[in-house]
Amino acid sequence: MNDNASTVPVIAIDGPTASGKGTVAHGVAEALGWQVLDSGALYRLTALAATRRGVDETDEAALGQVALGLDVLFSSGRIYLDGDDVCEAIRQEAIGNLASRVAALPAVRAALLARQRAFRQPPGLVADGRDMGSVVFPDAALKVFLVADVEARAERRCKQLIEKGISANLADLLRDMRERDARDANRQVAPLAPAEGAVELDSSRLSARQTIQAILDLWKARAR
């Protein structure tokens, strides 16, 4: 990270899967007119690219190379991998589960670190993920750890999938989320946990709009 980039303010929003980080991060970024980083998309893209290329999920070195060489374009709210629009493909549950396993590998995390930090551009950045405040942007001006009951998160994800015309089973989603939470929290590299100085915000009973406003209020209080 160069000196100029380090002066660009960052709001880091971390939390478990389906806690609403992505929706909230985009809403906060839109309100402030800032850049946004969906770090989870990069791990999902790595998982999708590895699947397409037949790379074994146990081959850490090969997966690191896949992550390092991702041909990705973020444009007008769409995500392209090797020139293909993959917005729907990377949101498949199978890809999400593989992304969680791939994200535990040090070689993959190291390969994506510089790419994530490159999103830090004026006038500011809202970054969401698992280790935005602890590893990627430890100097973030505001760190938020967004949580929600696992049951509430599973219900949200189930509703999202059904609205997209994708069949979903609440019991299966609940089991997968519990497994993913445990994997994210117990991995050796950048485990999921609140960063030092992070504000914990429980969104279980908050709407997306209310959660966005809560973070904007925190930012206004910090920026005074």
Order of H and E elements: HEHEHHEEEHHEHEHHEH
Number of domains: 1
Summarize the main sheet: 5 strands, parallel
The named CATH superfamily: P-loop containing nucleotide triphosphate hydrolases
Q: What's the mean pLDDT score?
A: 92
CATH architecture: 3-Layer(aba) Sandwich
pLDDT < 50 runs, ≥5 residues: none
Morphology: globular
Helix content: 40-55%
| Cα-based radius of gyration, to the nearest Å | 17 Å
Let me know the number of strands: 8
Q: Structural class from helices and strands?
A: alpha/beta
Query: What is the CATH top level name?
Result: Alpha Beta
CATH topology: Rossmann fold
Helical stretch count? 10
Strand content: 15-25%
Strand order, biggest sheet? 2-6-1-7-8
Distance between the termini: 26 Å
EC number: 2.7.4.25
InterPro entries: Cytidylate_kin, Cytidylate_kinase_dom, P-loop_NTPase
Protein name: Cytidylate kinase
Enzyme class: transferase
Tell me about this structure:
The protein has 224 residues and is α/β, with parallel strands linked by helices. The protein has one domain (9-215): P-loop containing nucleotide triphosphate hydrolases (Rossmann fold). Helices cover 51% and strands 15% of the residues. The chain contains ten helices and eight strands. The strands form two sheets. It has a five-stranded parallel beta sheet. A three-stranded antiparallel beta sheet has the order 3-4-5, with no helix packed on it. Helix 2 crosses helix 10, helix 3 (39-53) crosses helix 5 and helix 8 (150-163) packs across helix 9 (170-186). The protein is globular and about 50 Å long. The two termini are 26 Å apart. The model has no long low-confidence stretch (mean pLDDT 92).
